[in-house]
Amino acid sequence: MKNNEIKIQKIIMKAKQGFIEIKENGEINRLVGCKGVKKRSLLWKRKDGYMTACINDNGKNYTAFAHRIIWTYFKGRIPEGITINHIDGNKENNTIENLELATQKEQTYHAMYIIKTRNTMKREKNIKSKITMQEARMIRRMRQEKKKIKEIQKIIELSQGHISKIENNKIWKEEDELVQT
Question: What is the pLDDT of residue 127?
Answer without folding.
Answer: 55
